[in-house]
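We emphasize that the prediction below concerns an isolated chain of 379 residues; any contacts that depend on oligomerization or on bound cofactors are therefore not represented. The input was used exactly as deposited, without trimming of termini.
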Amino acid sequence: MAQPPVEDIAVSRDWASARLFSAIVNSSDDAIVGESLDGMITSWNPAAEGMYGYAAAEIIGRPAAVLCALCGEGEGQETLARIGRGEHVPHYETYRRRKDGTDFPASVTVSPIRDEAGRLIGASTITRDVTEQVHARTAAEVVHRADDLRRANGSLESFTYSVSHDLRAPLRAMSGFSTALLEEYGDVLGEDGRGYAGRIVVASEHMAALIDNLLRLSRLSRTEMQLDPVDLGAEAAQIAAELQDEDPGRRTRFTIQRPVQVQADRALMRMVLHNLLGNAWKFTSGRDDALIEFGTAAADDAPVCYYVRDNGAGFDPAYTHKLFSPFQRLHPASEFPGTGIGLAIVRLIVERHGGRVWAEGAVGAGAAFYFTLAEEKST
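Result of the prediction step, given as a token string:
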């Protein structure tokens, strides 16, 4: 039986290889896209159609740049430049864009295509959708950060116990012995000595108050919130009555909007109002026509914002950024006593409710403190 010519055997082998290669490309789960050296799409396998949403007939001949997300507009040009130098571009992660405009994370490999003579004629891009892998990595990072947070909270609890136990005892001793000196040896100490002992008592009490507020601040970040309907106006009115009862001789006018219904943790929101109204009460102490207001106003980033406003001492707006940090005081303690922690507590509580807090004011012209709550937590 006659054998086919060698040329026919070679053609048959080339045809079989081409069919095998085409079958591999068409059955691949990865998108395999051919591009010309000027960045036009020349071939498109079925996986590319499924991944990007374009049929081959509507995408072949179009620029490959349409597949790049906005964050990678220059990516295609850089890749083609590397291919033009004959380089292979190993897999890298980027974002690709589907026909419907949505982006997805992708792992991409680009290889040069050469003809039989070795001339560079284009590039082949293999793209794999790595959405699941990215989600898995994100979930692992969340778990890792949660573990770090648990460890940090454990350290914070240990620190809290140390502060509560180890610092309170010497402070009580300082205050107690200083008080005993004043009571039992006041005559011996003389006027200067009594003054020094009195300062020790005041300083130790101030330090104890600082510790109490620090502990309160640390506990607030871990306290579980109980969301219930709360009338902030009613809470503000009750706090105003308490302030007036403490100093009935003061002439202060309160203007309080009611009702102001929100969905929030009652105890925490009462702490917010107590700090804000207490500050307004303190900083209007030098005025005979003191006015303190609580109400609501329009907000840019929330359906409504809540405010406490006064016509008291105010503050220099250049230092507004310091107001909500612990121990950042804008007035001397000798003029307006306090620990400098109240507004930090306000910020923490408001942020835990999904809102934000800010302030406006001017020296001698009063101050206004605003806060929002998350939309789903206010009504």
